[in-house]
Amino acid sequence: MIQSMTGYGRVERRLDDEQVQVSVEVRSTNHRFCEVSLRLPKFMAPLEARLKSLVKNHVTRGFLTVYVSWSQGEGGGTELVVDDAVAGAYREMLDQLKKRHRVEGPIDLATLVSLPGVFKEAKEEHDLEHDWDVLRQLVIDALEAMTVMKREEGKNLADDLLNRAAAIEAVLEAIEERAPRRTEEMREKLRARISDVLSAEGLAAQIGEDRLALEVGFIAERSDITEECVRLRSHLKQFRSFIDDSGAAGRRLNFLLQEMHREVNTLGVKAGDEFISQRVVLLKEELEKLREQMQNVE
To answer: Which fold has domain 7-76+124-151?
Structure first.
């Protein structure tokens, strides 16, 4: 069954051996191709290529945004250290200010530690391979959660697409029912017109009935719509089978839709009949609704 390109998945995990809370959030929206945008902690920058490859192995189409949060959990405070270089620079500047402006008194510790940058977070040491093992499984779990949502939405899309395909088929049946009568009416009209022209030119006696029937048949054959109806019906059959397919069917469905548009346009050109022309307009309306819905099929 088809699935939607729109989905959302989120998972969280607290590492047992560390006071670390990790969460992964994946969002997917419509896109012609597969594009992945990452929002990662800085220390995970070396893992970007592997993470993009992992996501693309699970998704064929859509614009995906992956958010990763890696933070200290409850009970795991941030470790601070003194930036000696910054503190030393502040001390030298304060000493210069005292001399320049002849300020008396010592520079106390409270003043120094209140200045920005004197304290900084201790740089965490990360084992990237260990972190990748954790991140990889969380991303897979988030993608699977997103896929569940996409499949549920895909069921609703499939129902709508199948209903519209049925509506197209109903209109096509009306055209097929009308086509034989329209062909016979066209033959009679052509026969009458050609006979009138030949009579006006005094050539009626020179052209036999068989030759006249042959010419009428040739002209009528060029306006026959049987092939277009057969191909359109075949496309509808394939359309239904692709919707039931378990793989990504978005591109194949779009291709079939283009072919159906082509057949309907040819029907409109060949119609030469008010009833069929009106039904062609209905077909185009339904095909346009199909096109809009299929923008969200993966």
So the answer is: Ribosomal Protein S5; domain 2 (3.30.230)
